[in-house]
Amino acid sequence: MDTMRDRFAPVVSRLLDEDPRVAVVLAEIGRDGFREAERRHPDRVINVGIREQLLIGTAAGLALTGLRPVVHTFASFLVERPFEQVKLDLGHQDTGAVLVSAAASFDWPAGGFTHMAPGDVALLDTLDGWTVHVPGHPDEAETLLHHAVAAGDDKVYVRLSVQSNRQGRVIDGRHFVTVREGRSGVVVAVGPVLDTVLAATEGLDVTVLYATTVRPFDAAGLRRATDAAGTDVVLVEPYLAGTSTAAVSEALSDVPHRVLGLGVGRRELRRYGTIEEHTAAHGLDAASLRARIGGFVGAGRVPAGR
Length: 306
Known about the structure:
The chain has 306 residues and is α/β, with parallel strands linked by helices. Helix content is 36%, strand content 21%.
């Protein structure tokens, strides 16, 4: 199966052909995928070199002229390194862009901590007005890229990963999808962790919601699920643990509830290893998730039909 990033350049290259507002801004990484598009649209495919602050500044400038810039590099270089420019050039100037990342939390362990960005979504959460898509399959990535580019002049982050579920789901870029129904709690699985969550919760009487868009957070969808399953909520996110717990608490602020945030831990793992080893070390493998979810749901549970 191809990866989400394999879909990125072909999808955006077609959008360049179809929509004269679309522009692409790169910082060397990913340039090979746009060679032909660069030949066809030399004024709308821009490579700034290894200058990530300039990457964001250029995108903001293009947006101010009426273009819809699509900006791409590794997550650590797209969100963390040029964060001041994301905050000011895009946020403060109220200009829109589509930031499309690669490498996710630890997709390339051999790159070391400089190429890991488990805090990217949490960092964007400090800013106002961002839509955040976290696809779990290449088909979903393609759908969400189209949504992002078509989203007027909004600020959108699309988080691509080599980790993937076995099959794509029908998604709309806004709402959670109910994958399994139960009555002893709700588990929200974000993006590429869905398959692992389904394996971990096999036989448990829980509702599993699938989230590929986490900002805005589908509070209404969560409320509907907790009406039937009770207000014990477990979040399993492929980035910093607890990133969305505040969103859950806000959605359920008027009712007693408990929330457990699972995801990538704060402790830095200083050995390269493999993706699978990092997943297990952060407790995101199926066996670890089953123990943590099973130990949480039902203990002091607030019953359904409150």
